[in-house]
């Protein structure tokens, strides 16, 4: 046990428990309420978060907002059953009431005692700091104005610029009946620029952004205002010249980084433990089978330093891990929380996540990416007679049961005779997860991670995630353009 | 496992908190201030394969304060609406207003626009539901679906019931309160055969528990919807008419409303900028909202600015008749608020309705779309490209399920190419519409 965990625990206790007159010993009493007759596991999740957002429009920061959220969520489980209640008050009475309510899911059976608390170890994946305090309000406004100035100076066709700077300071504490005691302080910041360009009555949008789990001051030090302003303008100008996208099946080359949303949709969700326990995933029961081309290795990695999807410990107090999901094309593992791991006879993988104390945890992705291959990106493009090269996407979705997934390109080009020729309008690509992964025929050596913009939605809960991949070629995917 | 919730007491509490926040903001030097406060409580029950899976009790509250100091604005909010928290929120909003830039368009809506008529719209019908009764209903719903031949398993049935109170007050002296309730029951099932696995669902939702469909009807319908998807093929690539079923047609109405929303217009982020008065749809088609509808899913006498809502007509005989504006977006565009801060309320189509079989006949050969996937709609250009699933239609008759294809076009040409609206109106949400037949889109499949 390092002193880091003790310091985090002290901070979390001061911030979360002390204001309501609680100490760590009071959590044992709280757990006793939740460990009612027949309950075999219970946990308490304390959270407090401070969210700050600054928005620039028309060259002026006209709007800024600040939100304070917090409370405790209490979960009581018996086999596959879960009772859940929460309160935005953190007090002894709230723990008693929510605990009794949650444990009402079953009303008979043995009363089990909680295990004595053990502070969970694990390495820090980011600094446990308040990311909002490193910059003054003036500094934050200056960054946004800088983005506006640079975007407008970049091209006379730019007619609108909006930029935003957001940050979240989140403190969590987990105490579970299996003895788990864990604390974490999670910073998260993001800078975004969106522009509209107008030429001869045609309007297009471009946007860029990024961030991670670090102080806001790092965004300034890395000069992201300039980088994302220029990138947003570049993307908008490309789209001004875009022609209609082709329709039908064709080879698709995906650029490195953010197009890794392919992996998130085509395989990631299908490998979450809950869907596999219930047998509702197209990947259920397929561990050990070839589910992707040879050479395809996909990992979900919560341990990357300072990344948007990283977690030192997950929302059940399990340390974040790097889990290999597919190795050389063979399915090797699922992503698990404690409930699904227990019911499937597997080990938790540090993938339990929840949007807040007012939501139940589920197995979720962290940073999901494909490891680099050997191919030269230029060779990958050269190998395509006619197809699409997509480098940026708006978002995606999957039906985990049928395996059908989509993701929508926001910047793409036509490849003709091995050369990139013209930009094409945004189009949705659709495929079947297991089939599409079997059609990966070339893998670049240029692995990149995205810039830190992803939000994953599942059952109404949003959590920050990361994706990444090298340049990839899929021999065939359906491209949803208008040019048939 | 029930929580006591007295809506009248909650309402008085929220009103007094809103008033104390306004008073505090004034004391701290705000020239104007507005406060939104809410409290919601509910129960969510899910069952799967004949047994309870989760029981969730929810209780959410929040308070949001916006202050104006001269032409500067600051906002802050909290999920804790206690006295100390209100003070912190108001102080934070004031601190932010010291830093933001001047915005001549900012400020409350004009005082004379504040809602005067605040009738009870009959949208609050709490359900004295015990956990046991909720479990029983969800189990009955699931059983009705699981019992249908061909259904392999259940992905769960859920019942949720909630009620809440919302208060909006501002320094013009306006204070509006509304209580509301919503209850729903849904069922998701899995079917499997040699062609693969398919999942689908159905649901019922209502303000009044008595208006919910029976669990048996929902379960049986979910089974039917799931089974009909088995054996999906990919349609040919080409240009074909597309019939959007009512659940998907309401999405098209949503895209239209997104493009006439003031926020998109003043940011020039809409393909309908400067198009007021233009013909967008055939002349037999009109669309408007009925915010004062009794018992409507989105009924409210005042909008999020406190402005009196009214029956707006957005599309009048095919022409774009009105934008959808809040006080702020109206000022930015040099126009008047349409009472739409927070969006449109209870959108209704005014057009001759056609039996769905007749729409299929009119289509002849094409695709009936029952599901859409992904976000491929560009509000700036109107370009539309989404993943889809549904049925292939020949000679006006459904032939077989189709999946793993896209449909693409541009919203403007899709609206212009509207060939008919079905009489199969889906009345569950705040947008009521039947199927929409669009003359031609690009289908990309096999």
From TrEMBL, chain A:
Q: Which residues form the Metalloprotease TldD/E central domain?
A: 131-240
GO biological process, any: proteolysis
Give start and end of each Metalloprotease TldD/E C-terminal domain: 248-481
The answer to keyword Hydrolase applying to this record is yes
Keywords carried by this UniProt record: Hydrolase, Metalloprotease, Protease
For this record, the Gene Ontology CC terms, alphabetical, are: cytosol
Q: List, for all copies, the residue spans of the domain called Metalloprotease TldD/E N-terminal.
A: 42-102
Give one GO molecular function term: metallopeptidase activity
Q: Does the keyword Protease apply?
A: yes
Q: Record's family?
A: Belongs to the peptidase U62 family.
Q: What is this protein called?
A: TldD protein
Automatic annotation (TrEMBL), chain B:
Q: Indicate the segments forming the Metalloprotease TldD/E central domain, all copies.
A: 125-230
The protein's matches in Pfam families, at most eight in alphabetical order, are given as: PmbA_TldD_1st (PF01523), PmbA_TldD_2nd (PF19290), PmbA_TldD_3rd (PF19289)
Species of provenance: Halomonas korlensis
Cellular compartments per GO CC: cytosol
- Metalloprotease TldD/E C-terminal domain span: 237-445
**Into which family does the record put it?**
Belongs to the peptidase U62 family.
What InterPro entries does this protein map onto? Metalloprtase-TldD/E_C, Metalloprtase-TldD/E_cen_dom, Metalloprtase-TldD/E_N, PmbA, TldD/PmbA_N, TldD/PmbA_sf
Q: What is this protein called?
A: PmbA protein
Would you say which domain of life the source belongs to? Bacteria
| GO function term, MF aspect, one | metallopeptidase activity
GO BP, one annotated term: proteolysis
Q: Where is the Metalloprotease TldD/E N-terminal domain?
A: 33-97
Q: Which NCBIfam families match?
A: PRK11040.1 (NF008268)
């Amino acid at each position: 046990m390092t002193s880091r965990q003790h310091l985090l625990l002290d901070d979390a206790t001061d911030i979360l428990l002390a204001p309501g007159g609680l100490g760590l010993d009071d959590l044992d009493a709280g757990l006793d309420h939740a460990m009612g007759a027949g309950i075999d596991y219970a946990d308490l999740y304390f959270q407090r978060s401070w969210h700050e957002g600054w928005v620039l429009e028309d060259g002026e920061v006209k709007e800024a907002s600040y939100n304070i959220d917090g409370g405790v969520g209490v979960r009581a489980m018996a086999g596959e059953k879960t009772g859940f209640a929460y309160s935005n008050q953190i007090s002894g009475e709230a723990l008693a009431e929510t605990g009794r309510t949650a444990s009402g899911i079953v009303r008979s059976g043995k009363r089990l005692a909680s295990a004595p608390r053990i502070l969970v170890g694990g390495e820090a994946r980011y600094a446990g700091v308040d990311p909002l305090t490193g910059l003054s309000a003036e500094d934050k406004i200056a960054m946004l104005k800088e983005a506006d100035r640079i975007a407008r100076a970049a091209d006379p066709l730019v007619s609108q610029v909006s930029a935003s700077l957001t940050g979240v300071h989140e403190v969590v504490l987990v105490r579970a009946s299996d003895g788990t005691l864990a604390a974490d302080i999670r910073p998260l910041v993001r800078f975004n620029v969106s522009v509209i360009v107008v030429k001869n009555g045609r309007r297009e949008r471009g946007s860029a952004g990024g961030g991670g789990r670090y102080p806001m001051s790092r965004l300034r030090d890395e000069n992201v205002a300039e980088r994302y302003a220029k990138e947003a303008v570049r993307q908008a100008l490309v789209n001004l010249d875009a022609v209609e996208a082709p329709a039908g099946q064709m080879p698709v080359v995906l650029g490195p980084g953010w197009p890794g949303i392919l992996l998130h949709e085509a395989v990631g969700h299908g490998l979450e433990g809950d869907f596999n326990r219930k047998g509702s995933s197209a990947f259920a029961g397929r561990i050990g089978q070839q589910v992707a081309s040879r050479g395809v290795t996909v990992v979900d990695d919560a341990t990357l330093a300072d990344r948007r999807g990283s977690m030192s410990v997950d929302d059940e107090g399990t340390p974040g891990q790097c889990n290999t999901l597919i190795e050389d094309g063979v399915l090797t593992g699922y992503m698990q929380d404690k409930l699904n791991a227990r019911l499937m006879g597997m080990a938790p993988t540090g993938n339990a996540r929840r949007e807040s104390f007012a939501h139940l945890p589920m197995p979720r992705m962290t940073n999901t990416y494909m490891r680099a291959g050997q191919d030269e990106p230029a060779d990958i493009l050269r190998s395509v007679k006619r197809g699409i090269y997509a480098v940026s996407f708006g978002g995606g979705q999957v039906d985990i049961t049928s395996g059908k997934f989509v993701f929508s390109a926001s910047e793409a080009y036509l490849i003709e005779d091995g050369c990139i020729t013209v930009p094409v309008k945004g189009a949705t690509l659709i495929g079947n997860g297991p089939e599409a992964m079997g059609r990966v025929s070339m893998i670049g050596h240029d692995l990149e991670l995205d810039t830190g913009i992803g939000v994953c939605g599942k059952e109404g809960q949003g959590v920050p995630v990361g994706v990444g991949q090298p340049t990839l070629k899929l021999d065939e995917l359906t491209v949803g353009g208008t040019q048939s | 496992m029930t929580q006591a919730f007295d809506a009248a007491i909650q309402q008085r509490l929220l009103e007094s908190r809103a008033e104390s926040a306004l008073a505090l903001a004034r004391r701290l030097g705000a020239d104007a201030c507005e406060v939104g406060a809410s409290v919601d409580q509910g129960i969510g029950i899910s069952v799967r394969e004949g047994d309870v899976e989760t029981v969730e009790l929810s209780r959410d509250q929040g308070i949001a304060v916006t202050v104006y100091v001269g032409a500067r604005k600051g906002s802050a909010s909290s999920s804790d609406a206690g006295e100390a928290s209100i003070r912190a929120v108001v102080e934070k909003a004031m601190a932010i207003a010291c830093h933001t830039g001047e915005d001549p368009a900012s400020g409350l809506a004009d005082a004379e626009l504040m809602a005067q008529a605040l009738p009870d719209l009959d949208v609050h019908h709490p359900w004295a539901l015990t956990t046991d009764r909720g479990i029983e209903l969800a189990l009955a719903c699931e059983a009705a679906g699981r019992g249908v031949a061909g259904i392999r398993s259940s992905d769960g049935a859920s019942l949720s019931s909630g009620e809440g109170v919302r208060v909006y007050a501002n320094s013009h002296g306006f204070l509006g309160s509304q209580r509301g309730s919503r209850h729903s029951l849904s069922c998701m099932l899995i079917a499997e055969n040699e062609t693969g696995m398919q999942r689908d669902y159905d649901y019922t939702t209502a303000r009044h528990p008595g208006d919910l469909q029976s669990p048996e009807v929902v379960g049986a319908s979910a089974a039917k919807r799931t089974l009909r998807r088995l054996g999906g093929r990919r349609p040919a690539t080409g240009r074909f008419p597309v019939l959007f079923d009512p659940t998907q047609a309401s999405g098209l109405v949503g895209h239209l409303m997104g493009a006439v929303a003031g926020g998109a217009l003043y940011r020039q982020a809409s393909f309908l900028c400067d198009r007021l008065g233009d013909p967008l749809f055939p002349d037999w088609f009109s669309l408007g909202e009925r915010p004062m509808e009794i018992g409507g899913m989105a009924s409210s006498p005042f909008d999020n600015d406190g402005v009196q809502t009214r029956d707006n007509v957005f599309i009048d005989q095919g022409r774009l008749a009105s934008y959808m504006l809040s006080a702020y977006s109206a000022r930015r565009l040099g126009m008047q608020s349409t009472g739409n801060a927070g969006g449109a309320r209870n959108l209704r189509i005014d057009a001759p309705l056609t039996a769905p079989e007749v729409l299929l006949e009119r289509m002849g050969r094409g695709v009936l779309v029952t599901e859409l996937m992904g976000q491929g709609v560009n509000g700036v250009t109107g370009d539309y490209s989404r993943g889809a699933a549904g049925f292939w239609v020949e000679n006006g008759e459904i032939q077989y399920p189709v999946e793993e294809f896209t449909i693409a076009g541009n919203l403007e040409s899709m609206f212009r190419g509207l060939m008919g609206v079905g009489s199969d109106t889906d009345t569950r949400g705040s947008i009521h519409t039947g199927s929409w037949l669009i003359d031609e889109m690009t289908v990309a499949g096999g």
